[in-house]
Write a structure and sequence with these properties.
Layout (H helix, E strand, L loop, with lengths): L17 H7 L3 E2 L3 E6 L6 E3 L2 E3 L3 H12 L1 E2 L5 E7 L6 E12 L2 E15 L3 H6 L6 E6 L6 H18 L5 E7 L2 E6 L2 H15 L2 E12 L2 E11 L8 E4 L2 E9 L2 E6 L5 E5 L6 E4 L5 E9 L2 E6 L4 E5 L9 E7 L2 E5 L2
Parallel strand pairs: 2-8, 9-13
Antiparallel strand pairs: 1-5, 3-4, 6-7, 7-8, 9-11, 10-11, 12-13, 14-15, 14-18, 15-16, 16-17, 19-20, 19-22, 20-21, 22-23
Helix pairs in contact: 4-5
Bound molecules: zinc ion (2 copies).
One zinc ion binds next to helix 1.
Amino acid sequence: MLCVECGKREAKYDGLCEECFLRKVKFTSLPQHLDIVMCPHCRSIKFGGRWEKVPIDEAIKRIVEKNIKFEYEHDSYTITCNYDSTEGEFEVEVNVSIKYRDLEVSEHHLVKFELKYESCPRCNRFYGNYFEAILQLRGLRPEEQWEVLEYTHKRIAYHSRKNEELFLTKEVEKKEGWDLYLSDKKEAKKIARELCHKYGASLKESPQIAGRKDGKDIYRVTYAVRLPEYRIGDIIEVEGRYYVVSDIHDKFVSALELSDGKRKNIDSRKHNITRIAKNEELRKATVVYYRDGTVQLLSENNEIIETTTQIEVPNGATVKTLWVEGDVYIIPE
Ligand SMILES: [Zn+2]
Ligand SMILES: [Zn+2]
């Protein structure tokens, strides 16, 4: 039988010749990013829900073996990992040699590892669940909470590389968001500020006295980081005018006014910003006719609507619209 792919050579492996088989078949896949979580006190490493004291070299290999996926049958394999450092973010070159019948195939993967610190339960008990700050994440939409948590973990990892006193004691999911217990309040504040900056969130700081040590009050601080009501693409109202949000940066919201199409930079400290609609709530319509700012739209319920717009829209295009108090606005892309 000849190879079903090239039709030239003898089919030796599942209908394919050796050359076509090796070109087509990928035996293994591996995520491009993997985390390694270490306790900053006892240096034990977290595997799933279990903590074990193993050398980091062994831990890396075990994490690779746990995450590697075999996409094709094989007889046996060996894995070797090469890296220059195991600090912070580091790259690991993973070589897999696979035996399949009389073939020996080697595949290579480059994985970005990140070393993160989290206090293990044993040390937590030992250090009495030590924390100085609670970082509260609030106002998260369900679909974005993993991304925000991921970003927060990244910042914790970044700061704990410079300051070993910083670690995540525990993390609790609540009805209203997430509470992250951190061992260092100064570092917690930095991370809270970074979150505010990235997501345009507001920060509320509430200190509490947690006890006394050496004649001084010990403070714990709760940093409540609240994400705003709006996201990029949502419609907001500011002083009776409607805008689509194009960017959020710290305290500033960059937005396009829907009636004149002009871009404004709105300071959220000086203006009341109300969300009118989430982007996914906007109704779609098809452009039937457009000339010189006059546009006819066909709504999803097959109504014809005429309106004016500063945005040029081609006939036949699908656009998002905002319906408010008898007016219809076209939302620019
Ligand atoms: Zn072939
Ligand atoms: Zn520990």
